[in-house]
Amino acid sequence: QVQLVESGGGLVQAGGSLRLSCAASGRTFSTYAMGWFRQAPGKEREFVAAIRWSGGNGYLADSVKGRFTISGNNAKNSVYLQMNSLKPEDTAVYYCAASDRYCSGYGCYQEGKEYGYWGQGTQVTVSS
């Protein structure tokens, strides 16, 4: 129903920046919000950021607040994750997700279970 394709991952030194993109297709009009999650080896999937298609600045996990920015482009059905001041602990596979669930505020969008559609992920590796 909704297809998501991430891009922009790669290898970067600590302190550097990357910009991840997520292109959505299909029934994107049925979705309320987009999110970014990440999963590092041996770790559970972790919420990173979410944003409503209706706009605003979105919501960021405490671990990335002040360093990452999430944004969306409705016309392009795309969301972006600007990642600055990267740390080695940011190393993970980053997944884009789409939710067709309405959530008052961003609380529920911090939960992976609220997202019905997921991309294949893009690897981000931050070296020391």
Detailed description of the structure:
The radius of gyration is 13 Å and the shape is globular. It contains no helices and eleven strands. The protein is mainly beta. Strands 2, 4, 5, 6, 9, 10 and 11 form a seven-stranded mixed beta sheet that branches. A four-stranded antiparallel beta sheet has the order 1-3-8-7, with no helix packed on it. Strand 5 (46-52) and strand 6 form a beta hairpin.
Secondary-structure map with pairings?
Layout: E1 2-7, E2 10-13, E3 18-26, E4 33-39, E5 46-52, E6 55-60, E7 68-73, E8 78-83, E9 92-99, E10 117-118, E11 122-127
Parallel strand pairs: 2-11
Antiparallel strand pairs: 1-3, 3-8, 4-5, 4-9, 5-6, 7-8, 9-10, 9-11
Classification by helices and strands = mainly beta
In whole angstroms, the N-to-C terminal distance is 40 Å
Mean pLDDT: 96
Oligomerization status of the protein chains: single chain
Return residue spans where pLDDT drops below 50 for at least 5 consecutive residues. Answer: none
Report the total helices.
0
Helix content: under 10%
Largest sheet: 7 strands, mixed
The rough form would be described as globular
Tag the structure with descriptive keywords.
single chain; 128 residues; mainly beta; 7-stranded mixed sheet; 4-stranded antiparallel sheet; 11 strands; globular
Short description:
By secondary structure, the protein is mainly beta.
